[in-house]
Amino acid sequence: MERQEVIKILTDTEVLMTGHFLLTSGRHSDKYLQCARIFQYPEHAFKIAAHLATQFSDDGIDLVIGPAIGGIILSYEMGRALGVKTIFAERDNGLMTLKRGFEIQKRSRVLVVEDVVTTGGSVKEVIELVKEHQAEVLGVAAIVDRSDGKVDFGTKFCCAIRMDVTSYKPEECPLCKNDIALVKPGSRVFAQS
Q: Is 131 domain-assigned?
């Protein structure tokens, strides 16, 4: 898939939004990514997953796993594209674990997936979980890599698109200086203090 095609899908599905956003970190940005929105459109989710799967089609993957919540649907779509079993990991008392009777067989060849990678923290936790089960991580796949090239999983890493999302300290934000309304994604516009 070409970059422009991925951008069009992300824009059409309102994954990629532009405006003036308050990020979880407290910083401000003119872009916001809500990757969960792509999963409202199975044809787009499958198209991106199928594209990502081609990067791993010769690797002998046995299992696809993603962290809850962002990796659940993507792991299913990647597993479908690769024709292999899929599961997801979830937190229990703050630790990534397997529940619901899910298992990772010893020596299985595993692909870890996530919707958006920023710091890679959840992916790294899933990688450790896979290794605890004496299985081999053959790669990581994500729809969006917004780590600015700073994340290293110690294995092959493929994404549909790399995006650098600039953010600002509130006191340095040019959007605030231009009186553009600040929005906290998922909520209504609120007054700045």
A: yes
Residue 185 is assigned to a structural domain of this protein: no
Report long-range pairs for 48-52 (Cβ below 8 Å, ≥24 apart). 48/1, 48/6, 48/9, 48/77, 48/143, 48/160, 49/74, 49/77, 49/78, 49/80, 49/81, 50/77, 50/81, 51/1, 51/160, 52/78, 52/81, 52/113, 52/141, 52/143, 52/158, 52/159, 52/160
> Where in the sequence is the domain holding 36, given as residue range(s)?
3-177
pTM, entire model: 0.85
Convert the pLDDT of each residue in 144-173 to its tens digit. 998 888 899 999 999 999 988 888 899 999
Domain count along the chain: 1
CATH number at residue 110: 3.40.50.2020
| CA–CA dist 193, 178 (Å, integer) | 15
